[in-house]
Amino acid sequence: MNLIKQPVLWAARSIFRNRFHSETISEQHATMDVHVVSALVDNYMYLIVDRQSGDAAVVDPVEPEKVIDLIQSIDNSNRINIRTILATHHHWDHSGGNHKMLQLIPGSSEISVVGGDDRIDAINHRVKNGDKLSLGRLCIECLHTPCHTSGHVCYKVSCDNEISIFTGDTLFVGGCGKFFEGTAQQMYDALIKTLGSLPDHSKIYCGHEYTLSNLKFAKHVEPNNGDIDEKIRFAEECRHQKRPTIPSTIGDERRYNPFMRVESTSVQQHVKKDDPIEVMAALREEKNNFKTK
Ligand SMILES: [Zn+2]
């Protein structure tokens, strides 16, 4: 989403402060905790904490006050030490809170604001594909996935056998971002080659709660895919309870996300093409004009 421009960011913040489209959930893995915090209308921000050291990173903190409130609510919050802001891309609803986030953290001159695009608010650590950063025991690998924006970066955070991927507006649960600054070939490379080559159990933490509308389109593309029906039931139950549908996994996405299934026969038959790049382009075009109701 980038329809609303920077000047109205502060107005938007004042409207949405204290409002949450989803409850905050905390995913506790063996090596890292991932806290999922809702922002604005349907954005997600993430706090990643290395369980051993307490070192932490924040992904796309567009409403930084909510992240600070969350930290203060966590037991042993004095152990949590924010080292890094990870910006997936320059759109204001993702990186528009970076400067404010720095202002709210004591000693913030030590904090790196990481991203792949000079248009990112307060960026001080420009990264390229394959760059690796450490966060306590965790390794953060930067995956350049241009298409939604030319500087979009997904972050693969791993330790031992655990992998969490923060996919911004490249990969959503059941869908993908619009091709604002890139091509179908680039989205194919991002979804099939880069993200698609990660292990099935890799967790997906994406930038927006778009799951149900994405799955309605997926169902339109593959009406006979039972995995889509199952995921719709799960997502409806989550949304009924105002719970995030996040995270999913790479293995899950391969079963129901049409944009990760451009090589499957049923998706190809729907768009009447068999070249995966052309299938990607046709799906995106159809989704852009698809009305969920
Ligand atoms: Zn965006």
Name its key features.
Metallo-beta-lactamase, Chain A; 10 helices; 293 residues; binds zinc ion; single chain; globular
How are the secondary structure elements laid out?
Elements: H1 9-16, E1 25-28, E2 32-39, E3 43-50, E4 55-59, H2 64-73, E5 81-86, H3 92-95, H4 98-104, E6 112-115, E7 125-126, E8 132-135, E9 138-144, E10 153-159, E11 162-168, E12 171-172, E13 175-176, H5 184-194, E14 203-206, H6 211-221, H7 226-240, E15 248-249, H8 250-256, H9 265-271, H10 276-288
Parallel strand pairs: 4-5, 5-6, 6-7, 11-14
Antiparallel strand pairs: 1-2, 2-3, 3-4, 8-9, 9-10, 10-11, 12-13, 14-15
Helix pairs in contact: 5-10, 6-7
Zinc ion binds at residues 1-2, 89, 91, 148, 169.
In short:
With 293 residues, the chain is α/β, with parallel strands linked by helices. Helix content is 32%, strand content 25%. The chain is built from ten helices and 15 strands.
Distance between the termini: 20 Å
From the alpha-carbon coordinates, what is the Rg to the nearest angstrom? 18 Å
Multimerization state: single chain
Question: Structural class of the secondary elements?
Answer: alpha/beta
Q: Please tell me what the overall shape is.
A: globular
Widest sheet: strand ordering: 1-2-3-4-5-6-7
Number of domains: 1
Number of strands: 15
Ligands (ions, cofactors included): zinc ion
Order of helices and strands: HEEEEHEHHEEEEEEEEHEHHEHHH
Poorly predicted tracts of residues: none
CATH overall fold name:
Metallo-beta-lactamase, Chain A
Beta fraction of the residues? 15-25%
Overall CATH class? Alpha Beta
